[in-house]
Amino acid sequence: MNSNVSKTKLVSFISIVIAIIILGHYWNIHNGYKNEVSSRSQSSDEKLSEGSDKTRNYIVTDNVEFKMETKQTQKKLTKCGDIEEDIRRSSLEQVKPLLPKVPQSHKIKKGIEPLCREDTRPIPDNRLTDEESKRQQSCINNFKTDHAKGSGQFWSGDTQFIRHKHHKYLNSESVVLDIGGNKGEDAEAIIKDYNPGVYVILEPIKTLYKALITMFKKNPNVVLYDFGLGKKNDKFFVNVVGHGGDATSVFIENNKKDSCLLRVYNTTEFLIRLGVSCFDVDLITINCEGCEYDILETLLSTNITQRFRHIQFATHPTLKHLKQPAERYCEIQEKLSRTHVISYQYKFCWESWTRKDIATK
Ligand SMILES: *[C@@H]1O[C@H](CO)[C@@H](O)[C@H](O)[C@H]1NC(C)=O
Ligand SMILES: *[C@@H]1O[C@H](CO)[C@@H](O)[C@H](O)[C@H]1NC(C)=O
């Protein structure tokens, strides 16, 4: 009788312990899921769906069966961990207009059409004038000496940090676009000094992009996208060289397994979707291993150029895959000088331009 009672008690006790263990397990899973999703809640729909994939990874760490299943559906196809879905994606649907975040002071007008799409127009007959062509030619002739001088000066001592320190006009109301986020060095410096209200970073290399998400997850002003910009929507497989891939060069033919996916989107369409036709951007800073030519040429082919108060960019004129870097750089100089003036310049290396109406204030 007594032993039966204690047996029953023991069985109930064990059942309760098991129930607690199971409940605790589910509680952990549930919380893990919530944490993972909320840490990414500032990103776009598409990234949210990516986020839920990651959530699955998170949940499966103590569930072997599930782990094997997700491994199959998420086979990593490149060195950077790009999966099938990354490679298939090819639209800008994920881009969310910045308009709700942009201060009233930056808005050009209250557009009836929410993105002011009609306000961005191609520049008709966008060739250089005779005078501009002459200046372009002399710029090309001086390429070798000016490049040596420009990069020599820029990389000596602390001069290079002008790219962070120069932008004293930025403040907590400012809107900044950072094309080529890389390891976040420039973003971190500019955010630390000026804390811009909106800071958009584009970084197409998945490993770097993921590191940026971690770096800025506590900053609600930072908006991150995992693609780059170019003339048109396109994708490449690139060799990521250097530690952590900070010197990625495009167009190197390679086996997918040794390289990483690099997606670029039409610069004009991306900017329109952000809503840039409707408001002024304080600074666009472009540093993307040679893509600055395509981006600046595209920018300068429409009048959206005038929505940028300051335009800062690096130049990489010695990359093998670039055609006519000096010619293109010198043409960009001429076209930019129609609307902007140089605010600092290390020729063929790094420089920043200011819109004429602001420069003369
Ligand atoms: C671009 O041109 C269109 C058509 O002339 C004009 O309505 C619009 O305001 C211009 N946009 C800028 C930024 O100057
Ligand atoms: C890029 O997008 C703009 C705006 O939608 C469009 O007018 C232009 O034709 C596109 N360029 C290319 C090369 O697809």
From TrEMBL:
What SUPFAM superfamilies does the record tag this protein with? Answer: S-adenosyl-L-methionine-dependent methyltransferases
Alphabetical UniProt keywords: Membrane, Transmembrane, Transmembrane helix
Q: Which residues cross the membrane?
A: 12-29
What the entry lists under Gene3D superfamilies is as follows: Vaccinia Virus protein VP39
> Has the keyword Membrane been applied to this entry?
yes
Question: Mind telling me which InterPro entries this protein's record contains?
Answer: FkbM_mtfrase, SAM-dependent_MTases_sf
What's the name of the protein?
Methyltransferase FkbM domain-containing protein
